Amino acid sequence: MSNSWEAILFDWDDTLCGAEPHRYTFAQHAAADFGVNLTMAEVYDAFALAGDSAAGAWGPFIERLPAALGIPVSCQTEFVERYRHRDLIKAFHLFDDVIATFDWLAGLGLRVGIISNNDEAVDRVRELNIESRVEIIVSPATFGVGKPDPRIFTESMALMRVNSTRAIYVGDSFDNDIVGSRAAGLTPVLIDRFGVNPRPAGYLRVTQLAELASFVPGTAGAPLR
Questions:
Q1: What is d(CA 220, CA 157) in angstroms, rounded to the nearest whole number?
Q2: Across the 225 residues of the chain, what is the mean pLDDT of every consecutive 10-residue run?
Q3: Beta bridge partners of 7
Q4: Strand order across the beta sheet in which 111-115 lies
Q5: DSSP string, the chain
Q6: What pLDDT is recorded for position 180?
Q7: Would you tell me which of 87, 109, 127, 220 could form a disulfide with 1, CB atoms 3.0–4.6 Å apart?
Q8: What pLDDT, on the 0 to 100 scale, is given for residue 219?
Q9: For position 1, what pLDDT does the model report?
């Protein structure tokens, strides 16, 4: 086991679990159909502007998304209808590096948990057959708060009986995952699987879970901030 860390916790959507068609790609293609051509980074920024992944705010988010993408007002209702249909047909999958990462963490003796703003995360974890690999699965329904509220992190740490300073949190949303976990005393790691979320110096960033191996072992006493 690492001398510094007791637990590594993860966000769910776009950190451990993907969906097809992917929301960014779908939105990019749909926007192009309405004459708005965007890079993937611009799509990511629009999702963040619209409040993507905010706890309990999916309905307002989807209504704000077309304007954030720059879609003409006359086309926004059709875009929302398309996006809602995509939400009905999407299929979930684990990213290819998840199982190997969990095996590696188990070998280190590190405890693993999930903190998500998606109230369906518990069901998805069970469907994808990794429930036995994680100690806790926390959503806004668990404690009545969601990310970025630091309380969802501090309550999760209390549930695991782990000091926040001895835990790492990995997530794809800077505003929800990185800001929230850091405020709660965890060490945040931004995962940017799609290369759309560069951040200022001072924040750890990886593009795949395998990159965690570069700093988790052998970091005794070295704060990863």
A1: 20
A2: 79 96 94 96 91 73 94 96 93 96 94 95 95 96 95 98 96 92 96 83 89 69 39
A3: 111, 167
A4: 136-138, 111-115, 7-10, 167-171, 187-191, 204-206
A5: --SS-SEEEE-SBTTTEEEES-HHHHHHHHHHHTT----HHHHHHHHHHHTTT-TT-HHHHHHHHHHHHT--HHHHHHHHHHHHHHHHH-EEEE-TTHHHHHHHHHHHT-EEEEE-S-TTHHHHHHHTT-GGG-SEEE-HHHHS--TTSHHHHHHHHHHHT--GGGEEEEES-IIIIIHHHHHTT-EEEEE-TTS-----TTSEEESSGGGGGGTSTT-TT----
A6: 95
A7: 109
A8: 41
A9: 37
The tokens for 132 are 């036995």
Report d(CA 182, CA 202) in Å as an integer: 12
The residue among 80, 45, 53, 75 whose CA lies nearest residue 64 is 80
Predicted confidence at residue 55, as pLDDT, reads 62
Task: Label residue 92 exposed, middle or buried (CB < 10 Å: 0-12, 13-18, 19+).
Answer: middle
Q: Is 191 exposed, middle or buried (0-12, 13-18, 19+ CB in 10 A)?
A: buried
Looking at residue 197, its pLDDT comes to 80
